[in-house]
Amino acid sequence: MEKIFVFGHKNPDTDSVCASICLSYLKNKLGENTEPRVLGNLNKESKFVLDYFKIKEPKFLNDVKVQIQNMHYEKGAMIEEHQSIYKTYKNLMQHGYTGLPLVNYKNKLTGYVNVKEISKYLIDGDLTYLNTNYANILETLHATQILQFDDKIEGKILAATYKSETLINDISLNKKDILIVGNRYKIMEYAVMSGIHLLILVNNIELPQELMDIAKSNKVNVISVPIDTYECANMLKLCNYVKLININPNPISFSIYDYRDDFIEITTKYGHTNYPIVNKENKCLGMIRLIDQNTFDKKKVILVDHNQSSQSVDGIEEAEIMEVLDHHNLGTIGTSIPINFRSMPVGCTCTLLYKLFEEANVEIPKDIAGLMLSAILSDTLLFKSPTTTETDKIIVKELSKIAKLDYEKYGMEMLKAGATLKGKTKEEVLNMDFKNFTIGENKVGIGQVFILDIDEINQEKQEYIDLINQTAENKKYDVITLFATDIIKNGSYIYFNDTSKNILENGFNVKNLEQGYYLEGMVSRKKQMLPNIMEEIEKK
């Protein structure tokens, strides 16, 4: 069963992380094969939660772009370089290939051979020299083994077409010669007495016993073939190692982890028909053809706590979205087929998830209950956020019973664990929980951090403002804001790019808005920050 990745948005918060883990647990209990992933580094609050309940941090998911491993390449399409030209040609014809990767006995890629070069070799190559092994000769010539002393067979090919006296008197045979002979006793005797490398007996003739004894004594390899001298001489060249016609010892190859779009770009440039596929150890796994580029399987994903393309994993447009579980406004993600889309105006994705456990009649274990409880307390700021619903409160009480926790005491401990910027760079602070939005033709970015002491930012206030302005200019944002939310005072301090000042003044109804202005009761990005900015932009 193909694995399905479950993940939340970039710059993951506690709800995004916990919802991914808990939904994956539920799906697997129901017989699916899923794995939770994250799209970025976990913040301190999320790490506190996972450590508290002894849950392993999900692996990072870089992207869901189509890779070579998702394409329908020709698995196992390769030939060991010590196979015969004959076997290689048969393989090519059987599968309709125009070429094949060459590999060594460890399956490491060593080159490439194609039909064109085989044809060229059979016309222009040195066909009087044999370089192969005994097994290749037996297979290619459908030969019968008489005597074998060597595995490797290499030497000059001779056919006994002369008169016996001429051959014996004028041609000196030695241990590097390979002789094709018919029923000619004197020549056979001369050959085995000379200790040639290989004696080939045509038309299945037998070697007389007295000559057999001499051949054994001189370690002469002997085979018999069911064909005549002419056909044997023509077929013998096909016994050679195919590596002799290796046209490229370093062919253009692709890793199974390379992306499909890179494959298309490179193959457009070079225009070859076939390309070897290798793994990290350069072991050949098969071959991909140009005609295979449009046959592939999309990676399957389930999205939680977001439905905006800009907030999701890179390559989401190439993936097959199986399901979405969210509590935000509808975003830009679309699908080509109907899917399960579950959304409710509640304070947290894990509130929805609790209902899925109920509907599926799956018992919630203590640690999973703890994660879901943590997510709801985080997203609702201990019920202080305007996004909080009665449903959130009811479910928190039920989950706290399962997790055996005093949710108020635990929740404050959790929020405090995440409400410090100590050890973070300004870039990390801005991007800790940063979400992108597209409003008409306007690009908006809203970052939010939770604090206990605003001096952590105000001590370097101008540097934060400079960073925000520079980011807005470099990345073409119309509005960038950083809201520093005080979890005790229940409000947020706002920092912004200078060119968005007029939009923010009107959006939040503040005259002469200054950097670091405190907005009483402003704690929810979803219900307060984004809607106010969006409404003002849409007026223009």
Describe the protein in words:
By secondary structure, the protein is of the alpha/beta class. It has four domains: 4-65 and 299-418, inorganic pyrophosphatase (n-terminal core); 69-123 and 244-292, CBS-domain (Roll); 143-226, Udp-n-acetylmuramoylalanyl-d-glutamate--2,6- Diaminopimelate Ligase, Chain: A, domain 1 (3-Layer(aba) Sandwich), CATH 3.40.1390; 426-539, Roll (Diaminopimelate Epimerase, Chain A, domain 1). The protein has 19 helices and 24 strands. Strands 3-2-1-17-18-19 form a six-stranded parallel sheet. The protein has a six-stranded mixed sheet with strand order 8-10-11-12-13-9, sandwiched between helices. The chain has a five-stranded mixed sheet with strand order 20-21-22-23-24. Helix 18 (501-507) crosses helix 19. The longest helix has 16 residues, at 14-29. The radius of gyration is 37 Å and the shape is elongated.
